[in-house]
Amino acid sequence: MKSVCQIVQNVYDVDSRVRRKVxxxxxxxxxxxxxxxxxxxxxxxxxxxxxxxxxxxxxxxxGSLFRYAYEYVVxxxxxxxxxxxxxxxxxxxxxxxxxxxxxxIFAGIVARWMGAKLVLDMHEITAEFYMSKYEIxxxxxxxxxxxxxxxxxxxFADYVITINEPIQELLVSRGMDAKKSIxxxxxxxxxxxxxxxxxQKSAPQSDVQPNSFVMMxxxxxxxxxxxxxxxxxxxxxxxxxxxxxxCILGGGPERKILADLAQEHGIGEKVKLIGQVPSSEIPGxxxxxxxxxxxxxxxxxxxxxxxxxxxxxxxxxxxxLMSRLKAIRHYFSEDALAYFEPNNAxxxxxxxxxLYQNKALCAKMxxxxxxxxxxxxxxVMKQRYLVLINQIAGIQSDGSQTPQASAMVGA
Length: 411
Prior knowledge:
CATH topology of the largest domain: Rossmann fold
Shape: globular
Number of domains: 2
Low-confidence stretches: 195-206, 402-408
Radius of gyration: 22 Å
Number of helices: 15
CATH superfamily of the largest domain: Glycogen Phosphorylase B
Helix content: 25-40%
Strand content: 15-25%
Distance between the termini: 27 Å
Mean pLDDT: 90
């Protein structure tokens, strides 16, 4: 049995992207170790769905760049020591490193000397992430430093995974070798998420009124997701949508701001802040909505965003009000999503009314989105990932071992 190591500076249990990969590896017969952050009151080492999880109690208390740097360095040193020590016994065929930070790939340097291949899964584009978060100008020395560490990181990796084609193209323009990279979309796992038996864990009737037109968001309540814009838009047209409600699931720093804004506009009863909902109940909640809403703001980083909430709405058969972002437009047409200009409350308001007045259009858009999602759904991405890992590990599709790993997928 071949062994694979996953490194991620996050709590593993809540990192859906890494969990999807690990589940796929375990199902394919690999032995998997994960090195991650420890959840509050979590265990140092535990087993979950066939994988062994090793953790460090570091926490995520980020605020300043210095705090980010401190946490990155501490986690890097821990991962470097743990992976190097366990490599002697486990003999990992592949070390799959999930960013941020990009330089975490160097935690596998000793393992590489001992025969492991290194995969860098670039969850974010680092410079743009910090430019967005801290409003750093593009000509800053900090941006140059971030681009430098990005470049040496993807050059050091044997293979690189990116989360969508626009980001892959951007990284190639910065010097990444396209021949050693593949795209692994941030798709939702239908097996975990699609509505099925047990839908009794659905939205309480008291929260979602019968015969209402429900627009729904689920996720973290932070400024980048543009929920103030959604409330502002709804306030402009709620009189044209008498049976409409805006239902917001999740917690975060914007919750009180959103509640106050809804009251200020006189739509406090129509904007429902549900709070945090267990992930197992999300399919039931989405079954209650008519339209999903993702009013993400646009900036140098967010223009490349592909939120995992979008596939969840599509799998659930819902039309989606979606900011017109570069990465989303790359995959979905105007017939599939109800696009509006980011940061534009008037444009979003028009699209709200458009869908409210035409349920047949909602159904048509939902069907088209599902059709366009088909080539990037998780089953396709999972096979793409397993082909890569099998090639690196020297395993043929029938499970037998090859003399050596073949060339890069898609090269």
